[in-house]
Give the backbone structure.
Amino acid sequence: MDRESTYLPKEYEDDMTEPIQGFVKLLSNHSRVNDLALEGSLEEQSELKILAHLRLELPSRYMAAGESPNGVRSVETITFGFPPAFPTCAPSIELRANFPRNFAHVQPGATDQPPVPCIFEGDINELYLGEGLLAILNQLIKWLENSAIGRLIDFSQGWEPIRRDALEDFIVINPDKIRSLVGRNSKTSYFPFYYRSYKTNRRQGTKLSRKAKLLTGRILEDSLVIHYQNTRVWIENVSPSIQGRKGQSICIVATPGKDDSGKPCIVSDYQPETVVDAKTLYQQAQKYGCESSLKGGVASIKESLKKCIPKMRKYSAIDVPVLSTSFPIVVILCVRRPCRLIGEDSNIELIPYWFEACAPNLLPNGDKTPVFPIGALDVLQPKLLASLSGQKESYSNNNVSLLGCGSLGSKIAIHLARSGKAPNRVIDKSVLRPHNAARHGLLFETDDIQLGWSQYKAVALKDAIVSLGQTTKPFVEDISLISTSPTLRKKIFPQKSWALINATASLAVRNSLAMMPSETPSARVIETSLFAAGRFGIITIEGKKRNPNSLDLIALVYQYVLDTPGMASAFFSSKNDLHYRPIGQGCSSLTMAIPDSLISMYAASITQGLYSLMNTGFTSEDGQIRIGTVSDTGMDLAWSTHCVRPMKVIAMDNSKSWTIRLSSIAECKITEECNQWPSVETGGILIGLLSETLQSFIVTDILKAPMDSLRTKNTFSLGVEGRASMIGKHAASCSGALSVLGTWHSHLSDTEASEQDYETARKFAAFSSNPQALLIRKPSDYSALLCK
Amino acid sequence: MTANIVFFPVGNGDMTLLTTESGKTILIDVNIREKGSDPDDETPNVLEMLKQQLKQDGYGRLYVDVFLLSHPDLDHCRGILKHFRLGEPDDCPDDKILISEIWSSPMVFRRASKKLTLSEDAKAFNTEAKRRVQLHKESQKIEGHGNRIQILGEDENGKTDRLGKILAKTGSFIPLVNGVPDSSLSAYLLGPLPKSETEEDEETLSKNNSSVIIHFTIEGDGKGDACSFLTGGDSEVVIWETLWDKYKNTPFLSYDILQIPHHCSWHSVSHDSWSELGGEAEVSDEARYALSQAKPGALIISSSNLIEDDDNDPPCIAAKRVYEEILESPTVTGRFYCTGSYPTEEQQDQLAFEITNAGPKLEDILDSGSPFIQVSRQPIPHG
């Protein structure tokens, strides 16, 4: 098809700013623009408007008829308005005045105003600034063409509710609760409505800004009965402030009844949003089958208000300035649709409005009292948060206890809660103190900040989680008692638990958790902590049945750090240790001096890891170590992940309580050494972590035997040459985090510990103040002796 | 899914993809020119356009449910050998397109081979069709994916008598689409005309006049007769005269979309030569009636090069005028499209129509219309 440019006459250009001229050029060159006309001028101080005749592609039979049966023409006239703020905001778009309004995506508006299409799911200014005017024009063409063929709504996706996007006023409701009111018969219900209204600087150029105030509010979930006490608060409890006013009022919910044939009233047509005053509200309610319930509601409130005023005068010493007192009232019409709404399980559409009511007549201007559409937002609840976070609403692996509500723990909890996955239990024995404010996930109301920072951490975190529409159980408990108290264990780590996140950074807690018997075999402990002034962070995830446990894993973290070139000096450096920081006269806190932002980096990253774990569950029986390292710039955080096979637990021949927990890496080294000396006994030095509480030697590594060690068929004698310096060097390299735990040697046959072995054990015990282990590797098994 | 019809810009040639609401794809003819794959050449890359719209089977192979060859001229089968899997289908995915079921007329091959030498593409197609017929003759069953064939029109001397289920006779509905009934489409076979029904001597029946002619009725938006589509290869005037005589009182010539026979050739509407007689050449009334059964808003598509006011034929400017006259009728007020100038001659693109319940609707490419206005898109930040 031939295309001709349709420029406006030259003289018009004088009236246009350069950006408007640009738009005109774009329109003129667009293949679907037939011709243009101009309305208004800058000189006349009015908004400049450009009329464009857009050629639409309709189905062949509609093209032949010149319009679709629902009234969209094959050539539509569109008015683009250019507010003074253009081009920092998009031009306004109006359809011809008699364009059909009963489409899903027409913005609500008065019948005397031209209809405004809702062409974009979002802020049209963003579409304009992001993709330009062409995108708006093309989107508009698509919108018109889809309107013509009834494709604005895809019924397979559900009923498209009436648009409320352009409205700034909103109420927060629990839609499920309100929908549940719809029954067979028409009904009126009342709910408390808590509101705030603000003065607002409305964006110029939007047609809907007819008020100078912005109204927001919350519809409470428990319905009420209208009587004097309920009514008087609407008038009494209005508190004006500089920002506006806040108060308590009422919401009327009107549900539909039956139609003339006695069947439930179902509205399958789009009713254009034409409500502007009480009269048109009643008309709309009639179309939805809610007229009687709405009228009944309004009458009851009116009656109650009338009775209320004399009583208030009688019982109250306060002068009641009744006639000047006004307050907003919300009306929600419930409409039955033929199919479920998009993204909902219900076919009930909620259509809310509000009006400024006045005592004692309720409607100050009778039928002409202005009524405004208002947006209804879903109440803050996990479903909403999960959806905005791109997370599933619930994971099967989400029953979590969080230990430690300090800087790292609180941030992880808040991240989880913001995606609708708040921990089920939060546990911390300590109280917030002002210095905690430097690094924490919580904030408090400004009127009592010092008090805010004096609460129990667990309770304060619980409150924050409640403010995110979720619940959690707070426990102010000393978790280090968990290993010895079955009651405490049951409380914070119940049978249904999936994981326990330990963010306490407490050695006592770690030890206690490691000692905890495996009552909930599928649940695991996930420990998170930071090291070396935040240079490193770790996540350890226990293996199945608490093997490897948190203590095994931390020992293996040390071993991994030691084996990684360049890492150990920074990780184990004493200058990065915790220090006592003064936090008040005679008071100090043992902590790291690092910024909140650094902790946030870790908290965010760790939470991401948790999401992934919650999604997949624990997929392996192994444990896992993740080590995060912050770059020198402090801006990058990189993680490495290491699987940890279960530890081999070896009982001691001479002790019932002590065990050796042999890591797979150490066991490999032992096997290698034995393979190297197949015909004689050999041995070496055991390195690792000694846990007196767990009564365990956690073996992470093996040091080779000194050169002068004696290996024969029946005996192995550990040499001394260079031994002291080798051990000293090792201890220095990890600042003693890992130490010598004893020795090991091999037996060529499956014989038990010999008298000589016992003698050696006794010798070791005499030398060392710490318990030592003597591990014997036999062809098919291990045995061990405690040297204490 | 939404049914649609796509006419690919293949110059003077045919290549049309029909996708039904049930998701079946029917490719009618191909003219995949080698130059299309050269990014420096202006010839549109119709192979890529086609592949974008095809489904993959369980082995990851792109496939069409049906490939219909109207007749074996090169401008209707160019590229078959190179771009389609022929022979026993193997399981390895590659770049080639699998034809689940072939729709073919044996008569057209016989008539063609008597007159002229077939191209390599046509020979390869014919071999493949014969392979599939042979499979059926041996098994007497409807064969599987990649081995199926539907024979269109009976051949002489009882050659097609034993084909049973895989034979669709001229003047009847083709019962199965890729082996199964498809309620979202019906295809009525108007041609090739069997021997006895044309006045012309069998000897004079060229392959053009043996083209497969089908009247499709396509469901759109759940409406059964949302679009009638008439397509007839390169059929010439005598065929359309015969069809008018035979079908004038039936719905089988009416259309919402007509794919003009033979790339807008004068020979489809007149016995005279346009190049010799020019303005004196006369239009056959019967042929014009046959091609005039346009429904309101109908679309007439010329799958050809740009139609200019010159002596060329096809496409012939006078033929275009005949069709435009049909569209101008107050009961029609339809539109004429030429693939060679859509959206412009310089930058041709596929001409696509989605089938709505009120007929076909152009799937227009919304553009800026000006090379000076750049379409830019900023990444949307999140704050």
